[in-house]
Amino acid sequence: IPMGILQVCLVVLAAIVNHPLIFPGENGTVPENTEEIIQKMKDREVTLRLEQLRLEQEIAEQEALQKALEKSAEVVKESKEKNVLWDMWTAFSMVIFLLIELWRQDFQEGIWQDTGEEDDMAVLGKAFKGVAFPDKAVLASFYEKRILGTTGDMARMREMVEGFADDLLEALRSVCNRDADMEVEDCMGVGSMYENWRVRKPFVCDLIVPFAPPEPYCFQSQTWCSGDSFPPHEQGYGTIKVCRADEDGTGCICDRTKLGEDMLCLLHSQANSTRPSSEMEDLLCFKNTQYLDADQVMKWFQIAVTKAWNRISHKYEFDLSFSLLDSPGALKIKFRSGKSIAFNLTPVVQYENSDVYFISHFPRSSLAADLPSSTHWFLTFAVYERRFIQLVSKTLPANACHVSCLQILSFLHGKQCSLTGPSGLTNYHLKTVMLHLLQARPSQDWGPEKLEARLQDMLKFLEKCLHEKKLLHFFIGNGKVPAELGFPTIFQRAQPLNLFRPFVLHRDIYRKTVDTFHEMLRNMTALINEYTVHIRLAQT
């Protein structure tokens, strides 16, 4: 063992003595290696310094960004606080404004309600101070002598016109092709002549004539309140689609589904899947569509009436002609004595199974807008209006004054328009006012002794509607229509239709209408007294 230890010690001593770092030789490379190591260390030092500078720069940028974010957050917070303060001030100002406006309206209503009945008799509103109403005796005398005295022959005229119209339509059916032309039904009388309130001459009877397409076709109607969206200017209108009786309103499913090449529709073959445009035009449709064209219908109707008159003209000792270019259904009977009778014969289409009708031509006023297109048909509720008046009249006192009020108001407005020119008001607007008041007031308020009070009510109601530019259609959107009329619920549930909406769009017509109404109120007493005096002088 000692010898082993000695050998190890000798080996270690030899290794130490021969190590180049302790006793370097002449050919050693230690100095060169040292310079290379020193150079690498310097390069590393430079790299570390550059990295340190980059990190310091990034830290500085992050600190600057953090400060900017903190500053912007403070600005946003301050602006939000300012906006909250401004919104609170705006809301507070609006509340104060609404409270002041409500107080002002209540104050005005209170003043209006505090005025006695005598003040109400003398003035309708602030703009009409000094306007007095004729007393009951003058009104009663004026109505009896001026209104009733000129409307006594209406019944004979209606009977004569209806008899001739029936004969003319029977001849029309005989000249039409039953397999290709429209099928014409019996006519119906509507309007002021058949509601017994027309006062202005010439007396004109309004007759509507329902018609239907030949077999196998039928009409599919669509109104503005049937679910599809209609723009505001098309409210009150609808379209009529001509379909085959074996189709629904949207057509067979083979028109909407792509069938395979080996599949065939059992209802329609390729021969009749598409209809020629000429066939639809023969059915009075608009070009390249299935929608009934009102202009085409009126042309067809005029030609058919002319042929029918040529067939029966030898039986009558008078001439028949179309009287107005802008009213295609206006006819005039001319007697050899020079007298004449005018009446309107207008084709209509029935809406489903009701007495609402699509009318091909409706008398237009300066207030009414142009039709959207000839495929849009106006809806008339004239049959239900006549029935409502008849139904309500059964519950009113004897010789009720509702018709008298409407006749006087229609007469005064017509006289005023003859002096100052036409306005946006029509007799239909005046009748709508009466219908609303008939529903709003109890039956006992329409006794003959209440003529003066009810006439004032109509004028007040009309003044309010003109001020608000809002007169709602009586039937559309009215859930209080008596169930006995059988009125379609689709129109009762519809949004109310404002008859005065065009006043919002046509400010010049609105201004003219209001001025005419004010002038009528100022001239009312003088006009009634003048006619009453003339009647008395004629009697003496």
Automatic annotation (TrEMBL):
Query: Where located?
Result: Cell membrane; Nucleus outer membrane
Coiled-coil segments on the chain, per record? 50-82
Q: Which GO terms describe its cellular component?
A: nuclear outer membrane; plasma membrane
For whether the record's keyword set contains Lipid biosynthesis, the answer is: no
Annotated keywords: Cell membrane, Coiled coil, Glycoprotein, Membrane, Nucleus, Signal, Transmembrane, Transmembrane helix
Q: Which domain of life is it from?
A: Eukaryota
Q: How does it sit in the membrane?
A: Single-pass type I membrane protein
Cleaved signal peptide residues: 1-24
Concerning Gene3D superfamilies, the annotation shows: 1.10.1410.40, 3.30.460.90
Keyword Glycoprotein recorded:
yes
Q: List the molecular function annotations (GO) for this entry.
A: protein kinase inhibitor activity
What is any Pfam family matched here? Mab-21_C
Which residues are in the Mab-21-like HhH/H2TH-like domain?
A: 403-476
Q: What does this protein do?
A: Enhances Ca(2+)-mediated inhibition of inositol 1,4,5-triphosphate receptor (ITPR) Ca(2+) release.
Q: What is the similarity comment for this entry?
A: Belongs to the ITPRIP family.
Which protein is depicted? Inositol 1,4,5-trisphosphate receptor-interacting protein
UniProt lineage: Eukaryota, Metazoa, Chordata, Craniata, Vertebrata
